[in-house]
Structure prediction request, 490 residues.
Amino acid sequence: MSNSNLIAENQLMVNRRQFFGQSATGIGTAALASLLASNSGAAQKMGGAFGGLGTLPHFPAKAKRVIYLFMNGAPTHTDLFDYKPLQQKLHGKPVPKEYIEGKRFSTMTGNPDGKLMLAPVEPYQQHGKCGAWVSNFMPHTARMADHLCFIKSMHTTQVNHAPAVSFFLSGSETPGRPTMGAWLSYGLGSDTDSLPSFVVMTSVSKGTTCGQIFYDYYWESGFLPSQYQGVKFRAGGDPVLYLQNPSGIGAVERRGMLDDLAKLNQMRHAEFGDPEILTRIAQYEMAYRMQASVPELADISKEPQPVLDLYGPAVKERGTFAYNCLMARRLIERGTRFVQVMHAGWDQHRSVTTELYNQCRDTDQPSAGLVADLQQRGLLEDTLVIWGGEFGRTPFIQGELSNRPQWGRDHHPYAFTIWMAGGGVKPGITYGASDDLGMNAAVNPVHVHDFQATLLHLLGIDHEQFTYKFQGRRYRLSDVHGKVVHEIIA
Prediction:
């Protein structure tokens, strides 16, 4: 058989992936054209945003953007926000069996029978006109009580950190599903083409012994095209790699290289129709624009001192939670849709009387300062701020009562507290309640899927209609569950 016949036969033997890929190039080429619409590579602007489906929001949105302050390791609700006088009264006594019957705890607790109740480490006081109970651990948050919506009846199904974090952020305890920021980047797009729509920053308190690992799947795009995954800003050096051109390469040369690469990728996409080729082109273009936008973003030298003071003394130190909170504000000002600020170290199995103070010191003022900063800039009204972890911590002790420096609390999925601010939620309210020991969600329980449905609703999205078909099934952030908590919506 001649070489020409071999080539012709190979062309006839199109595999399934190639067939469907090439069949889809009509749609793919339209998307590609929008990426290459101008010589500068600027994205096509659709529906008032860069990218997005064009069919969202489903109804008028109260929030346009989200800053999620995620406290990895699970803050102790019983020591921070959920005041229970009976817990103080039963300090040192065995936990009543009726509160824990049939409950599953981590292997560190095992059977909870006989575990002793542990009173809050710091006293509580009521704050603001709303009279919210906040412990002395959180004095700055306490002063913002009238601007916050506390949900004290959160509950989840997961008892270990990684699956619980994944469940909150993606609706599934196993990796592989798109996370919140990826869903919103895909559905709503961004208000800028010079910064990522979804940005992630991480931090951990210095000297902590209970830091949590930040897995990349906490900000993954799952089965969505990978252009929607979160872009992680680094703590040291340039926020993202390769912002600087190599020696001897100027802007003109870089632009020419990208144009040539785009043409090669366009040819490849015309042949195979692989959406990841579109992602490659989009990411090259975003990286080019970020060479100008990110240095300006990271330059906080012109921030007024009173603004810096809101975030606390660590605000100028790269990699701290305070710095990341300020960067979150600067990002959403410049059009980023979803900023995920993750802080590890809340896993106080043996350090509720020691390291919990460090965690609160490092996060309390920046969190409250962010809310105050957004408010004074007129951004809080349509920016949703969320503060919370993956679950709570046990009202009973982990460790020996006689050894106060080693007091701790184990994982607790049955009741915990988060707070929200701005973005269309009612300020100065407390929704739901745990029982009189902070053990179980007792009044108006809010499941993780309810939380996700409510977040999407605030952004103008019907969580049941916002789906993506993958492997024959339509998936959504809230899985097949979730109801909107209308009572907290202004």
In short: The CA atoms of residues 123 and 397 lie 17 Å apart. The longest strand covers residues 148-155.
